[in-house]
Amino acid sequence: MSRFNSIEDVWLFLDSIPMFQKVGSSAANFSLNNIRAFCEALGNPQDVYPSIHVAGTNGKGTTCYLLEKIYSDAGYKTGLFTSPHLLKYNERVRVDQKEIPDQDILRFFKRAEKLFDAIKLSYFEISTALAFWFFADREVDIAVIETGLGGRLDSTNIINPEVSVITSIGLDHQNILGNTIEEIAEEKAGIIKSNRPVIIGNITGKPKDVIEQKANTEHSKLYSSVHLNPDWKNGIITLKDGAIEVKTLFKEAVNKWNVACSWLVSDVLNEQFPTKESQRINSIAKFKGAPGRFEKLHPEYEWYFSGSHNTQALESSLQAIQAIKSISDTVLVFSAMKEKLNEDMLDCLTGFKKAYFVEQEGERAAKFSDVKHKLDVELMDEPQKENILNELKTELVIFMGSFYFYPIVKRWTANVS
CB count, 10 Å around CB of 333? Predict the structure, then answer.
């Protein structure tokens, strides 16, 4: 008898597997052997369709969603794999901009049931295999695959994409990827494949040297977004010294690089997957943003969520806030994972009109005691949050930090009228 008779059985199985969100690197498997063996037993579904592989410290999620929209609007059947999910597991796997239905998740788990006993996979590896299988099952024209962590040993790195994309390099996950910017660049560059082009975002200096060296070794042509000279002014993004102009819905200037990367991908793949420039402009202009990236949370109140969990991303979000109102007139509600906290990050979070800290569950979550020495901050917990949110209705509020904070904030703000 199958142990997967309903979707609830799947959720129970997944809940029994350690998640990176809760326990960190002990939940990950930094080897490609198991995912390779598992997918081989499934018939190597990841080799059935063309793909785009996207890595990067920041910007990779937005770039993936942008590429999905550009190719979907152009009439291609698209697959999109991203992580982590913010509200529900189905978000990780999309076809034609729609989340995978429960019945298809159940179908996969029934199909792979015996394999789960033979080959032990991590939570992320299972999600990766599900995506690869579903994209093949739905016969997508092109799939956009986001790395989970790093690149070289990420379980998505068994694909042979049409193009690899590295959006940015910054210090993040140093306990896993390396302590220097060069070591992190080397891990991200691990997605570059032989004789397949690679596109980079705003990457210069030593990290670019590392990527160039890897590209040369793999005989991969390197394209830099810097050559598009992307510019930003009040949401209007221009490329190619103003030759291309897009009025976007973005709030953060850093998105000019995500748009530039997406544009370059479309250029490089234009022979295989033709898209008109006018259609690309229209898709980018209508793009509402990736979930949790400076997202407006409430129709009436000036409340935003930004999943900024490293210094580079925080600085970008702070610039976006200052374009609306000064930091001294803004309220911060912050939460983070313990390993992300450092003095530079905490230095960024000073000067707000008022600041609150939220403790999440799990051993990875930072506690109030980890931040109160540095920040003039109050603890915001469940019993207090209703009163505090009511008081903040007239304020500009930025909810910031870990993406794992997002479902908490969405639940809170959904109940505020």
Answer: 26
- Whether residue 2 is contained in a domain is answered as no
pLDDT tens readout for residues 75-104? 999 999 999 899 999 999 999 999 999 999
CA 304 to chain centre: 17
Q: φ, ψ for residue 268 (rounded to 5)? A: -65, -35
Single-letter code of the amino acid located at 20: F
Residue 81: which H helix or E strand, with range? strand 78-81
Q: Cα 10 from chain centroid?
A: 24
* Structure-token pair, residue 306: 């930004």
Q: Is 142 helix (H, G, I), strand (E, B) or coil?
A: strand
1 domain residue, yes or no: no
> Is the model's pLDDT at 280 over the cut of 70?
yes
14's tokens: 């997944």
DSSP state of 287: -
Q: Over pLDDT 70: what percentage of the chain?
A: 95
**Dihedral, CA of residue 332, residue 338, residue 342 and residue 347, to nearest 10:** 10
**Of 286, 314, 338, at which residue does a domain stop?**
286
In a domain, 211, yes or no: yes
pLDDT in tens, 281-309: 999 999 998 888 899 888 889 999 998 76
Spatial separation of the C-alpha atoms in residues 163 and 193, rounded to whole Å: 8
In the three-class reduction of DSSP (H, G, I as helix; E, B as strand; rest coil), residue 165 is classed as: strand
Domain that holds residue 33: 7-286
CA distance 251 to 289: 9
216 and 82 within one domain? yes
CA dihedral of residues 12, 17, 23, 26 (deg, nearest 10):
180
Residues 135, 239, single domain; the answer is yes
Which of 95-104, 223-232, 401-410 is the least confident region?
401-410
Q: Could you give the C-alpha distances from 317 to 61, 251, 408, in angstroms and in order?
A: 15, 9, 20
CB-neighbour burial class of residue 36 (10 A; exposed 0-12, middle 13-18, buried 19+): middle
Question: CA 18, CA 7: separation in Å to the nearest integer?
Answer: 19
The sheet carrying 244-247 orders its strands as 231-233, 236-239, 244-247
Give the whole-angstrom CA distance, residue 351 versus residue 346. 11
Of 56, 393, 7, residue with least CA distance to 257: 56
